[in-house]
Amino acid sequence: MAAQKYITATCSISNNQVHLNGEQVFAGNSKTVDELLLSIYQHFHFSYPKFHKMDNLSKLGWLTAELLLKDFNEQNYHAEQVGTVLANANASLDMDLRYYDSLKDVPSPSLFVYTLPNIVAGEICIRHNFKGENAFFVQPSFDADFIHRQVSYLLDKNILQACICGWIDVLGQEYTAKLFLVEKIKKENAAEFSVEKIKSPL
Predict the structure, then answer these.
(1) Distance between CA atoms of 9 and 180, rounded to whole angstroms?
(2) Rounded to an integer, what distance in angstroms lies between the CA atom of residue 199 and that of residue 141?
């Protein structure tokens, strides 16, 4: 039986802007992705030393998730009840190319660690101690129908009670992050979890 599911928070980072639950909460003028990610980190006064060791894909996902989960009460769930369903178009190619360049000299183990796209999901789960199902898909573009089906299955089958889902992509100076928090608990200003809702701009 299909469970009622709600989008209880949204966050996006694109075009030098951060939108949280539909409101712009940051606007920058950074020339590079590296500058932008650091400026967002500093603007919101985050303190997480591991952030500085991450690749840009993980930094983008981590920042988006950190803001998305700002008001999330993790005490409502067991660690195994919260998971992630993420996707992008370029997998870990941004870091793959950097690692490839390092092969000309001494290969860097710190770069090699991030040559898998699902590492971003791991960084989010480690930060928040989530231990539920997680999946990362590579698609030509954001497939809202596919993401909706995946998340619905996990919540309808009670495999998860809450899920962070969406799109996190970086290649060179191109980047986009768009995440949704989906829960069975209806909260103030929550919207029904639907294909149309996750297709729309945040």
Answers:
(1) 6
(2) 11
